[in-house]
Amino acid sequence: MTAVVKRIFVVTAILAALLAAAGFLGLTMGSSGAGAADVIQAIRDFFREESLMHSIIWKIRFPRVLLAALVGASLSLGGLVFQALLRNPLAEPYILGISGGSAIGAIIGILLGLARFPGVGMLAFAGGMATLFLVLGIASGQTTAKKESLLLSGVMVNAFCSAGIMFLLSLARDARLQNIMFWLMGDLSSGGMAEARLLAMMVLPCFAAIFWLSHKMNLLLMGREMAQSMGVNVRLVSVTLLVLTSFMVSATVFQCGLIAFVGLVIPHLLRLVLGSDHRVLTPACIFGGAAYLVLCDLLARVLPRQGEMPAGVITAMIGAPVFIFLLRRSSA
């Protein structure tokens, strides 16, 4: 077993244990009063006859924890890929407007009355891809440094997407408006096992494909010419990674709305601790991002005295200061 493989196993084991602990905490929190002892009993009785507490934990809380884990893993991994391909530590799906573009596509699908899947989902993916190519197109025409051009282009497109979302919301003058507003803020409360299962079917193959390409991501960091000289088909690998990432981000937006900055905070923290080897960072971002969003959703449930808030509020409150810190450091 090589040193890299050992490192991947160790990092994955540690972060998987963190995710398991976060998931256990997520299962113990809820308005029904079921605590840690009830969760342990429900785990023991997984294959036995169902009780009320068993149903609460496995049919209500577990799907929400699973959904949060899948969304967190997808957004974190998406941020890692964007940062590697664009060679910009500030690149992430929300800041670049990819999430906003996906939201516009999803809202159009909802207003048109299309089926949630595949109609709304396909429009969310189309919106995300259109936004991605728009950002890259605008940045390529700028004369300032590419790093700054890309970030500014993303901010501009994101602002345009926000305006487009507000315009579309003004057209929804019925009972769907409140649901769309809550969904836009990153709501995980409405997700059930069917939504979690569908999201898993969409993003798990992307996780595997990105891990398979992680070594080529390392070579791309050495520069286009160097990567080509080492046998990497740069265009094919880059397009494949961009499509996979946009698909993952669109799938999360389609299910849970806009959840910001997960793709910025987690890859940055893990890169500081683990270095820049994407063969290690890829599984680390999957498990680290999953644990992070499960904990953020937990905070969103316990912090308000009454009710709960969308998990996207918590991730934005944490991520915005981190973004400002990174922006100031990159400008220094």
Report on the structure:
- The protein is an all-alpha fold and 332 residues long.
- The chain has a single domain (3-331), classed as Orthogonal Bundle (ABC transporter involved in vitamin B12 uptake, BtuC), CATH 1.10.3470.10.
- Helix content is 78%, strand content 0%.
- The chain has 14 helices and no strands.
- The chain has helices at residues 3-28, 36-44, 52-86, 98-111, 116-140, 146-171, 176-184, 193-212, 214-220, 224-229, 234-256, 262-274, 278-302, 311-331.
- The longest helix has 35 residues, at 52-86.
- It is globular.
- The termini are far apart.
Quickly describe the structure.
The chain crosses the membrane at residues 60-82, 94-114, 120-138, 150-172, 192-213, 234-251, 281-303, 309-327. The chain has 14 helices and no strands.
